[in-house]
UniProtKB/TrEMBL annotation:
GO molecular function list: O-methyltransferase activity; protein dimerization activity
SUPFAM superfamilies for this protein: S-adenosyl-L-methionine-dependent methyltransferases (SSF53335), Winged helix' DNA-binding domain (SSF46785)
Sequence intervals crossing the membrane: none
Name this protein carries in UniProt: O-methyltransferase
Pfam families (UniProt xref): Dimerisation, Methyltransf_2
InterPro entries: COMT-like, COMT_C, COMT_dimerisation, SAM-dependent_MTases_sf, WH-like_DNA-bd_sf, WH_DNA-bd_sf
Record key words, sorted: Methyltransferase, S-adenosyl-L-methionine, Transferase
O-methyltransferase dimerisation domain boundaries: 78-154
Organism of derivation: Laccaria bicolor (strain S238N-H82 / ATCC MYA-4686) (Bicoloured deceiver)
Matches recorded under Gene3D superfamilies: Vaccinia Virus protein VP39 (3.40.50.150), Winged helix-like DNA-binding domain superfamily/Winged helix DNA-binding domain (1.10.10.10)
Domain spans labelled O-methyltransferase C-terminal: 196-386
Top-level division of the source organism's lineage: Eukaryota
Keyword check for S-adenosyl-L-methionine: yes
Parts forming coiled coils: none
Amino acid sequence: MASLTVELSKIISDSVATLESVCKQNNLSFPRLDEPFTPSSEAFRANPEAAEAANKIAAAALQLAAAVLPPPAAITSVISGHFKSAALRVCLEANVTEILREAGPSGLHVRDIAAKSNISSTKLARLMRYLATHHVYKELQPDVFTNNRISSMLDTGKSVEDLFSSPESRYDNAHGFPALAGHHLDEIPKSTAYLWETLSDPVSAHSDEVTQTAFNKAFNEELPVWAWYEKPDQSGRLRRFGSAMRGVEALQPPDAILSAFDWSSLPNGSVVVDVGGGVGTSSLPLAQAYPNLEIVIQDRPPVVEDGLKLWKVKLPKALETGQVKFQVHDFFTAQPITNASVYLLKQIMHDWSDPYASKILTELRKTAKQDTKLVLIDTVIPFACRYSKAEAENAIPGAVPAEAPEPLLANYGGANEIGYIGDMTMLTVFNSLERTVKHISALLESTGWRLTRIRRDGSSNFLQPVEAVPI
Ligand SMILES: C[S@@+](CC[C@H](N)C(=O)[O-])C[C@H]1O[C@@H](n2cnc3c(N)ncnc32)[C@H](O)[C@@H]1O
């Protein structure tokens, strides 16, 4: 049998050949690492064959590196994750990416970058060189750096002058990624540093409470993270978090909801309840595509108020005709809509640990009709191992994700990390989680629901709609 390294290198060479030929046939260009990122440079990934080939190349290359590096070097790369985050945070806060964008393709000497940001040039050079070693920025000549495809992801698109003159509004009206990066380089790693202390403290070790998290320990804070953001001295972080969440939303195709369920199977006049529906972002395309459905969007009072304002601009007719209604409702209390065909919960379950998630599901089960469908939309976390043949054959539709070919990890390893990062974030700040299919199934069963299918064919690649029916 071929050795692991031979098999992995064959996956890489075969997939590179596929990628090149698909790009050539479809007149798609493959982006260069040395060039700044543009959304159009990702066009090739809309071709499923090209996207799959790129995934396999990345998964195999990362696995190959793990296989051939000396183990002390491989583990040290994991150990040193915090140094990479810290170096990147300095560059983000010092507007290095935007400074380099304005400098143009010949780059800028680190002493000029540092002078604009008023930080030490020798210290900045070391941080940037460390990042360039990991393909974030490029050192063109000794101490002269430029952006590349990866570092340019931090670009707010704003002028350096604007960024330095009004730092408080740096993320406003920018695409959300730099704000998301700022959030993930600040309160998240500071909290994560206290994960062991939280998990080993008898008070918090087994807690499911949102006030007993690593965040609470790290910041010596008694309030849940949401309430902390609303404190006057956290207004900058709150503003950044708002921009980051809009950025995450923008990553999802706006009409992803249309492929989350077979909406056309519902008879005219069926009632869909968007539980914790926010301002109705998902219900909007649904109401437009299915005017025959009645939609009730439930949330907390201030959110309902914002939602009404938004719909009066975006789709006033739906409110006027009564097709869409907003309703104040706390999902931990008895569900007022008792004739629902569908209870839809998008990105609700992952905010809550099991005792709270159980309460939400139990309340819905109490009022569900025998033919009510429950649709949960969250990330379903893949196992890092393979399903046995027997298990895969007996699983409900969609339970088993498309697995990467051997000898790759079934979940595509490090090439498919985003869902797991979401899960780590949930653990750190909420004591909540993104769940595996087995976990979801058990949670549903314990609250009177039966998992019937998972849709993996939708247009969102990190959210998988889960369907359940009353037991
Ligand atoms: C992550 S957002 C998801 C919003 C929406 N489903 C979407 O995907 O756009 C979570 C929502 O849960 C709402 N929420 C939090 N606690 C709630 C409660 N006890 N009752 C009802 N809604 C609640 C929040 O106000 C927020 O709108």
